[in-house]
Specification:
Strand order of the largest sheet of chain B: 9-1-10-11
Distance between the termini of chain A: 50 Å
CATH topology of chain A: TIM Barrel
Structural class of chain B: alpha/beta
Order of helices and strands of chain A: HHHEEHEHHEHEHEHEHEHE
CATH superfamily of chain A: Aldolase class I
Radius of gyration of chain B: 21 Å
Helix content of chain A: 40-55%
Low-confidence stretches of chain B: none
Largest sheet of chain B: 4 strands, mixed
Structural class of chain A: alpha/beta
CATH class of chain B: Alpha Beta
Mean pLDDT of chain A: 94
CATH class of chain A: Alpha Beta
Mean pLDDT of chain B: 94
Number of domains of chain B: 1
Distance between the termini of chain B: 69 Å
Order of helices and strands of chain B: HHHEEHEHEHHEHHEHEHEHEHHEEHH
Number of helices of chain B: 16
Low-confidence stretches of chain A: none
Largest sheet of chain A: 8 strands, parallel, barrel
CATH superfamily of chain B: Aldolase class I
Helix content of chain B: 40-55%
Strand order of the largest sheet of chain A: 1-2-3-4-5-6-7-8
CATH architecture of chain A: Alpha-Beta Barrel
CATH topology of chain B: TIM Barrel
Oligomer: heterodimer
Number of domains of chain A: 1
Shape of chain B: globular
Strand content of chain B: 5-15%
Shape of chain A: globular
Radius of gyration of chain A: 19 Å
Strand content of chain A: 15-25%
CATH architecture of chain B: Alpha-Beta Barrel
């Protein structure tokens, strides 16, 4: 067990002092999950006050999508997010252009490591998508990310919506990755948010609640130059998303813009998101893909 | 009194009253509640053990006349989906339970008017005859009350006859919220009033058995009523010291008449933590991973819980209402160790049994929960013909069964 002086760390953070690598590793190895969570929640409050944000997204899969496919972005969507593998860069560009022509909401798309493999240079790909109207690259995995990719995003005039963690890792490896991300962000400033839970998990041996929450809290403490720490509604579900809010996250990403409400309006996804934010003692704010508040 | 003053009182190990508990629930942050609850857990269990039991949650019948509007499990008398487990099925479940290291059935069911007291006595004797050391943690207070009413025998006599037949301990089911206003709204006042539930528990304790206590929150009750529930349990525990543990879970609304929404994970952690603070005479608090999932279930260990409940093998009631989380022994132990505790198997009485079974011998992984009745099984066993049915539907079913 590692003894940590939480009062001292609280004071240091309140004074705007970044925690050292030694302090962060001591926190990661402490048994005091509540102490860690309280530190992260304090940082979240200093950055965002009592606001807990969420965004509703419309997802468009370009895989096999006809060029003349109808575009209908629901009014509920605060962001349109492209995914899938287009037949060509030109097809992706055409899809972005077609959607851009119908809506003013921010457009994001694809994973950065996938764009690298579309052929041609990453800079050319990003430039073409930006010219077509894309506002942001949707996501990048920390284990597949490098500084050059982030510079290419910046050079294209884009931002990176979310950096995720690829596969589960132990605390020290995660801290190394987060510290690397902090350094890259200092050099580029393009990362808007970090969703610090792994996107690939084993069904037989899922990550634990303690590991997940420790990683959310550590991300909040390390990434003092990344504004938002996120949960992902579709991937995590209500309980895990809300737990992330308790441990330092301030935003819920990827709430579906479309909801057939099979269980009635009280159990609509939107209501469930609001309930979970409120029960986490946060003021509910719906945002768009540029993190601007949406007004009813 | 302010939150800080109440927190100081809790930290000094002093008892808080209902008003103070309400102030904490309403005004303390989730972190404050967690800190206080975790501190109490650490004082009560400084050895950093987290326990669990391997047992099987068997529902011997789903036929029920209580008609609680929060329940998605029950079937009415005469329903084509109504079932009663046969002894053969029950013995097979016991065999499976023993094979994975289990030593107990948590046996509960609907209020089936066609099962007389003798059916329960014969069943318990048959189990004890075939499995002498196997434990029967069976029949919640409303079931005992139902048997008492159907047999026109007083509760003390029913309890003593069940103990004589092999009853080892009584689960704390059917408590819901021990406030009659709530019980009337949930349509469970008829099955047992708050006083009746507590009265059965008092009698069971007086006759020497230990029991658990539960609370289902998040349906129609107010925070004040949740706290009243805890206060009533605390008072009975002061009197009898018969409760081994407290388990709280959130109302699961799917497929129920009452419907509504489930309260969130944070509300579960707050309620759990408050329980640890208020129930200062309960040694053990279980995490309800069955309703909250493994992750919030594990987080419960930081909010006052010291026990991961049961490696369930089978569960029917909560699943009928929408929750279907599963953790086998490997997963429960992994979660306990990952949270920095030492896992230890226990009995219902919280006597320590030993380290995980799978460390001693190979045990097959179980990644899903079994159900009460296998597909194609007879819903009403022929052996019921030996007992007189009370209802017309029951008599007709038995007349049609092959003898």
């Amino acid at each position: 067990m590692v003894a940590v002086d939480f009062d001292q760390l609280t004071e240091a953070l309140a004074a705007g002092t970044a925690l050292s690598g030694t302090q962060l590793r001591a926190l990661a190895h402490s048994r005091d999950l509540i102490g860690l969570g309280m530190l992260a929640a304090d940082v979240r409050t200093r950055l965002h006050g009592g606001r807990g944000t969420f965004v509703r997204i419309e997802t468009i899969d370009v895989t096999g999508r006809p060029e003349d496919a109808a575009v209908e972005v629901p009014a509920e969507a605060g962001e349109v997010r492209f995914m899938g593998t287009p037949v060509s860069l030109e097809a992706a560009v055409a899809a972005v252009r077609a959607v851009r022509a119908t809506t003013a909401v921010p457009l994001s798309g694809w994973a950065l490591d996938a764009l690298v493999h579309w052929g041609g240079s990453l800079a050319a790909t990003l430039g073409a998508l930006r010219a077509a109207g894309l506002d942001a690259v949707a996501t990048a995995r920390l284990d597949r990310l490098d500084l050059e990719q982030l510079r290419a995003v910046a050079d294209a005039g884009l931002v990176l919506q979310t950096v995720t963690v690829g596969v589960p890792s132990d605390d020290d490896v995660l801290l190394d990755q987060l510290e690397q991300l902090r350094a890259w962000q200092a050099a580029t400033g393009v990362v808007r948010a970090c969703a610090p839970l792994p996107v690939e998990v084993s069904a037989e041996q899922p990550t634990t609640g303690y590991d997940d929450m420790r990683h959310v809290a550590l991300a909040r403490l390390v990434l003092d130059n990344v504004t938002h720490v996120q949960a992902h509604w579709t991937r995590m579900g209500a309980k895990l998303s809300q737990s992330c809010l308790l441990f330092g996250a301030n935003d819920i990403d990827a709430v579906p813009a479309r909801d057939a409400m099979p269980h009635g309006p009280r159990r609509a996804i939107l209501e469930e998101v609001r309930r979970n934010l409120q029960a986490a003692s946060l003021d509910v704010v719906e945002r768009d893909g540029a993190f601007a508040e949406r007004r009813a | 009194m302010t939150v800080d003053a109440i927190a100081a009182k809790v930290t000094r190990g002093e008892r808080i009253d209902a008003d103070e508990a309400l102030t904490l629930y309403r005004e303390a942050s989730t972190w404050q509640l967690g800190r206080l609850a975790d501190g109490i857990r650490a004082r009560r269990h400084p050895e950093r053990l987290v326990t669990y039991i391997i047992d099987r949650n068997v529902n011997y019948t789903n036929v029920c006349v209580a008609r609680c509007n929060f329940c998605a499990f029950y079937r009415t008398v005469g329903s084509p989906d109504g079932y009663v487990l046969s002894r053969e099925e029950l013995f097979a479940k016991i065999d499976e339970t023993i094979s994975v290291g289990g030593s107990q059935l948590l046996l509960q069911g609907g209020h089936n008017p066609d099962l007389p007291l003798a059916w329960y006595e014969d069943l318990f004797r048959a189990v004890k005859g075939a499995y002498p050391t196997f434990r029967l943690h069976a029949l919640s207070p409303p079931e005992i009350l139902h048997i008492s009413r159907m047999s026109k025998l007083p509760v003390p006599e029913v309890v003593s006859r069940l103990i004589a037949a092999g009853l080892d301990s009584v689960p704390g089911g059917g408590a819901e919220i021990l406030v009659d206003r709530v019980r009337k709204l949930l349509n469970c006042y008829g099955k047992a009033t708050a006083d009746e539930w507590l009265g059965v528990m008092r009698e069971v304790h007086l006759q020497g058995l230990r029991t658990t206590a539960t609370m289902m929150y998040g349906s129609v009750e107010t925070p004040e009523e949740r706290i009243e529930h805890m206060m009533r349990l605390r008072a009975l525990q002061d009197e009898t010291h018969g409760f081994t543990a407290f388990i709280t879970w959130s109302y699961q609304p799917d497929h129920t008449e009452l419907a509504g929404v489930e309260l969130t994970g944070v509300e579960y952690l707050r309620t759990l933590a408050l329980s640890r603070i208020v129930l200062d005479n309960f040694d053990n608090l279980q995490a309800s991973w069955v309703t909250q999932g493994g992750k919030v279930g594990q987080l419960s260990l930081a909010f006052g819980a010291n026990d991961m409940g049961s490696v369930m093998i089978e569960e029917n009631v909560v699943r009928a209402a929408g929750a279907s989380f599963c953790m086998d022994e490997v997963e429960i132990v992994r979660n306990i160790e990952n949270a920095g505790f030492t896992p230890m198997r226990r009995t219902m009485h919280y006597d320590l049994v030993g380290p995980p079974v799978f460390l001693e011998r190979a045990v097959p992984r179980r990644l899903s929960l079994d159900v009460a009745k296998r597909d194609g099984a007879d819903l009403m066993p022929a052996e019921l013909a030996a007992y007189e049915a009370r209802t017309r539907a029951g008599r007709e079913q038995r007349a049609q069964s092959p003898s």
